[in-house]
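Quick bug: Carboxymuconolactone decarboxylase-like domain-containing protein output formatted oddly.
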Amino acid sequence: MARIAPPARPRLADRVAAAATRRMFGMPLDPGAVTAHSRGVFWSQLVGEVVLLRARRHLPERLRSLVEHRVAVVIGCPWCIDFGAMLALRVGVSAEELVAVRDYAGSASFTDLEKRAMAFADAATATPMGVTDAMVATLRAELGDAGTVELAHLVALENQRSRLNHALGITSQGFADGDVCALPPLDTARPTGAPLTAPGRAPA
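Here's what came back:
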């Protein structure tokens, strides 16, 4: 159960948005229900997601899904892992590949580019940030400037989603199988409350 319950009397616009997500995903989305307490947060989230959904994309859907899932797993947001897994399965990522994202570096399931993109996601999610000039230069050579900017934005956006939902205690809604959404230790595992650190750096 979320740490903050949805408004007892949602506004008409909130009810319309909930009905739209019910048609798309089979049920209203809990983050939208909770963030409806703040109209600014609710609408900035909703409009931003719709604009990005309709915009031209420079990254393959599979790569986007893997990166989003990796960030959600690193942060440990149950809702984002669950919802993201469902979306990833829709674009052809297998359940086995989603599980393998937890230790992608040692997996044969991913291309070198996919591994580099997830390593970038790890570095950008870390505290302090561990992104290097060399990482960005390599990604630019493979994805181009537009693709690299899109990747960086995607990582930052999933950090925002996952940290917001996780902080508010929003949990899985059962969109995907439990095995896919499990949270075993990561290769970046750390004690509860300790910061995720960039590779080769000591915690601050």
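Actually, after a second look the formatting is fine. Residues 188-204 have pLDDT under 50 and may be disordered. Closing.
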